[in-house]
Design goal:
Elements lengths: L6 E9 L6 H7 L8 E10 L5 H8 L3 E5 L5 H14 L4 E5 L10 H9 L5 E12 L3 H18 L10 E5 H6 L9 H11 L3 E9 L10 H17 L5 H20 L1
Parallel strand pairs: 1-2, 1-4, 2-3, 5-7
Antiparallel strand pairs: 4-6, 5-6
The chain binds guanosine-5'-diphosphate (GDP) and magnesium ion.
InterPro entries: Glyco_trans_2-like, Glycosyltransferase_2, Nucleotide-diphossugar_trans
Pfam family, one: Glycos_transf_2
Length: about 260
């Protein structure tokens, strides 16, 4: 008799015009990762004008969400996290659809969450192996990562990774405050809430087909104000939230006993 797989890992891919890449990424995603765990694949197609959705389905995607118009990577990841929760994922793993990140290493990136050591993981290129990244991209990555280190007062190696894992709790509480991007603001948000973050070394190979959506001015002009806005926002610490919930439960019990 088949064993019932009652825990679910959803691998989700935000995608915009990736018909030449997404099929390869999906076919490389391991479907057997751990005893008792099933893997499903979800694509958030952000208004692609090519055959991204058809290619994803033929490659074996289990769920596709299609935005009618292009809304931005931040909006797509926000929707991906919400959809993972709706679809009953215990863990969500985001990976770019451009074949730059290694699907074979998904179990490694998820492992700290499985082992109870982290709520949020990042596949770190700078702790691992990088092939083909231009020098100005390297400098840009280092600068944006250093900014996050300063703001969070902790060491981070790769703050712009396109491969990240989330516990269900982290997916429920993560907030992405702009539609254009998610990379820095989600880390600032989760770590400030008290979620435990861990980086795992991964192998990275720059894309072979298509182009990065990043344009320097637009990126800096959108991301810096969003970081500023996120840092000025008060967040409820997870510890405080748990305390508050405990207080409410105790109060309810006391009321019931009266
Ligand atoms: N949702 C959404 N995803 C996008 C958009 N532009 C790019 N992406 C996806 O975001 C991921 C990373 O994009 P990419 O352009 O390679 O950025 P880079 O890796 O930071 O240079 C890929 O999966 C793209 O398909 C967009 O406008 N909306
Ligand atoms: Mg890319």
């Amino acid at each position: 008799m088949d064993r019932i797989e009652d825990r679910k890992l959803i691998v989700f891919l935000p995608a915009h015009n990736e018909e030449l890449n997404i099929g390869q990424v999906i076919s490389r995603i391991p479907r057997k990762v751990r005893e008792g765990w099933q893997v499903e694949v979800l694509v958030i197609d952000d208004g692609s004008t090519d055959r991204t959705a058809q290619v994803a389905l033929s490659a074996g995607a289990d769920h596709i969400i299609q935005f009618e118009k292009n809304r931005g990577l931040g909006a797509a990841v926000r929707e991906g996290l919400a959809a993972c929760v709706r679809l009953g994922a215990d863990i969500g793993l985001m990976i770019d659809a451009d074949n730059e990140y290694p699907p074979e290493e998904i179990p490694d990136v998820v492992a700290p969450i499985w082992n109870g050591q982290a709520d949020y993981t990042m596949g770190s290129r700078f702790k691992g192996v990088i092939r083909g990244m231009t020098i100005h991209r390297r400098i840009g990555n280092v600068c944006f990562t250093m900014l996050q280190c300063v703001l969070l007062r902790r060491v981070i190696w790769d703050g712009q990774s396109g491969m990240r894992g989330f516990s269900r709790e982290a997916m429920l509480h993560a907030e992405i405050i702009h539609d254009y991007n998610y990379a820095q603001v989600i880390t600032l948000n989760l770590v400030r809430q008290g979620f435990r973050m861990k980086e795992v070394p991964i192998r990275y190979q720059v894309r072979v087909h298509g182009q990065s959506f990043i344009k320097f001015r637009k990126y800096v002009g959108s991301v810096l104000p969003a970081i500023w806005k996120e840092m000025r926002r008060p967040v409820v610490k997870r510890q405080q939230l748990l305390q508050q919930q405990k207080q409410i439960l105790l109060q309810r019990r006391a009321n019931a006993e009266e």
